[in-house]
TrEMBL record:
Keyword Transmembrane helix in record: yes
Transmembrane segments: 34-59, 80-101, 113-132, 144-161, 195-215, 222-248, 268-292, 304-323, 329-350
Keyword terms: Membrane, Transmembrane, Transmembrane helix
Organism phylogeny: Bacteria, Pseudomonadati, Pseudomonadota, Gammaproteobacteria, Pseudomonadales
PANTHER family: CONSERVED MEMBRANE PROTEIN (PTHR37814), MEMBRANE PROTEIN (PTHR37814:SF1)
Organism: Halopseudomonas pertucinogena
Protein name per its UniProtKB record: Membrane protein
Length: 369
């Protein structure tokens, strides 16, 4: 795996992790609530992450995509692609706003600060980052990822090792946990929950992954990076799921389980975990506002920087609605968009799996002439 593959893998992971992994609460709702069978659901999500990451990064590299809308037009056609682009952009902006609210909630819970302070600090960081060039943004996101992995792995492995509940007690606690609802009803099976998890998070990761893939002229390296990033996300979700299950007797009703696990080890570790959560939220917020702004202006231009600042400041105002309310409103509908994306990506793979990169690149050039 060369430098490009490694960079794509880290950036893919860093964008997705903040939107779907940060608090640990999402893991409990999508997987741990099904008991030990939830581990199988997380394996389903891992396989989907790897497959989807591979194909998105590959076709983006072949097209030399500058934004996610070019890839959408290839997957859906021009008219349907425009509709999906507008809908996806709207919900991605909602996720970005949710991340600003999440920063405020995290700092409020750990340090007692007013939520507006945390949201404002995150907004300033996002605007400053989006004023960098694309490579700078990717390098910054990639640099954050190792710290996040170390923190999450350390807390999760230690919590598994120190688990005191019996399997029967943990299963009983898991049965009391809230299970994710979709279109007003509880999801009845762990496999379907794994599919929904992947659909939600690929919708979050798709725009930045499309841009990152488009920066390399080596489709095979891009595809390898997508696979590696997807498997990394899968490994992390499997480990987190096991960690949450091993401590379910102590996590029922806890809003941010990962922070609770860290606090049980040592208060100073909880402080570091809070920083890690902020870094996760930051990575996702940058990815969301970047993708939304790229919809209206070419990255690295003054117009792009100005629009990024305006969108982030408007997002700051909207974030005061509250983190929980925003997530509850935006995420279910984003999952629907993600399911549509998964179907389109699978159909694209079936159409192109026997064609060479050169043939696909030639077709792409012909379509844009």
């Amino acid at each position: 795996m060369n430098k490009h593959s490694f960079q794509i893998a880290l950036a893919y992971m860093s964008v997705v992790i903040g939107g779907g992994f940060a608090s640990g609460n999402e893991v409990i709702q999508f997987f741990t609530g099904y008991g030990i069978a939830g581990v199988a659901g997380s394996v389903v999500a891992a396989v989907l992450f790897a497959f989807l990451g591979m194909h998105i990064a590959r076709i983006s590299s072949i097209m030399q995509a500058g934004s996610h809308k070019q890839v959408l037009y290839t997957l859906f056609g021009e008219k349907a692609g425009l509709v999906v682009d507008v809908v996806l952009s709207f919900f991605l902006y909602g996720v970005g706003v949710g991340m600003l609210a999440g920063a405020g909630s995290t700092l409020a819970q750990q340090f007692g600060l007013a939520p507006l302070i945390g949201s404002t600090l995150m907004t300033v960081l996002v605007i400053g980052t989006l004023c960098l060039n694309v490579r700078g943004i990717i390098n910054l996101n990639s640099a954050v990822m190792p710290f996040l992995l170390i923190m999450v792995l350390a807390v999760t492995v230690y919590s598994i090792y120190t688990s005191t509940g019996s399997r029967e007690e943990l299963n009983q606690a898991a049965e009391q946990a809230a299970i994710i609802t979709f279109l007003g009803a509880e999801v009845p099976h762990w496999a379907l929950s794994g599919l929904l998890w992947a659909s939600l998070n690929i919708a979050v990761g798709f725009p930045m992954l499309a841009v990152i893939g488009g920066l390399t002229k080596q489709p095979k390296a891009a595809a390898l990076g997508g696979i590696a990033g997807g498997l990394g996300l899968g490994f992390l979700i499997i480990l987190l799921n096991i960690g949450m299950f091993a401590n379910m007797d102590r996590l029922l009703g806890v809003e941010i389980p990962t922070l609770q696990l860290a606090n049980q080890i040592h208060p100073w570790l909880a402080m570091l975990m809070s920083l890690a959560l902020i870094c996760m939220i930051y990575s996702t917020a940058v990815g969301m506002f970047f993708a939304f702004s790229a919809r209206f202006a070419a990255p690295e231009t003054n117009r792009f920087r100005a629009l990024s600042a305006i969108f982030a400041l408007v997002g700051l105002a909207l974030s005061q609605v509250g983190f929980t309310k925003l997530v509850g409103t935006v995420y279910p509908m984003l999952g629907v968009v993600g399911l549509i994306l998964i179907i389109a990506i699978a159909m694209s793979w079936l159409r192109t799996r026997n064609r060479s990169d050169e043939q696909l690149a030639s077709d792409s050039r012909a379509r844009h002439q």
